[in-house]
Inverse folding.
């Protein structure tokens, strides 16, 4: 975490300076990992579609989504900077779950919920994301649960209201089972 803070401090010191055409994404990978995050509460960015990353950076920059230090980091970025960072982040390898198999009952409940809420219609058949829709597959479990709770309460804004609407009928057990299973895919 200290390394993450040191890199973030360095990036903030450069705020306002023009960014390179192909930005060094060490400031991103210091916290988010080189595809797979090792930091609780910090999402893995590997395998995310560039359009989704651009949209998220835009929302952080404009204050439409609040998650420090991201708001401060994105604030000095131009639209071209947002696109350049997103392009580089999209090149990171997607995380792959390597732990033990999930509890069959929880995995089955999650599959039912995924079908009922039509998660694959937007996130793709393997929940790998597409276009402006994020990859969910093998995302950090606690991050998925927090995001779903944020969407349900409308404390977390999406680029459009689809996720806020989709999460309205989820109870805490549904959210826990979805996060558990999706993290293990």
């Amino acid at each position: 975490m200290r390394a993450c803070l040191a890199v973030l401090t360095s990036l903030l010191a450069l705020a306002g300076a023009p960014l390179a055409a192909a930005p060094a994404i060490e400031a991103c990978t210091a916290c988010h990992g080189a595809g797979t995050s090792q930091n609780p509460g910090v999402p893995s960015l590997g395998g995310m579609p560039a359009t989704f990353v651009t949209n998220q950076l835009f929302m952080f920059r404009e204050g439409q989504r609040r998650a420090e230090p991201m708001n401060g980091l994105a604030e000095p970025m131009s639209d071209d900077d947002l696109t350049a960072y997103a392009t580089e982040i999209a090149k990171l390898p997607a995380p792959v779950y390597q732990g033990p198999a999930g509890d069959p009952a929880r995995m089955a409940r999650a599959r039912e919920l995924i079908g009922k809420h039509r998660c694959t219609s937007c996130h793709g058949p393997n929940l790998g994301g597409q276009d402006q829709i994020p990859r969910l597959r093998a995302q950090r479990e606690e991050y998925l649960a927090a995001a779903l709770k944020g969407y349900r309460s409308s404390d977390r804004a999406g680029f459009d209201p689809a996720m806020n609407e989709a999460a309205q009928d989820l109870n805490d057990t549904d959210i826990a089972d979805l996060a558990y299973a999706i993290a293990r895919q």
Notes: Confidence is low (pLDDT under 50) at residues 1-21. The radius of gyration is 16 Å. The chain has ten helices and no strands.
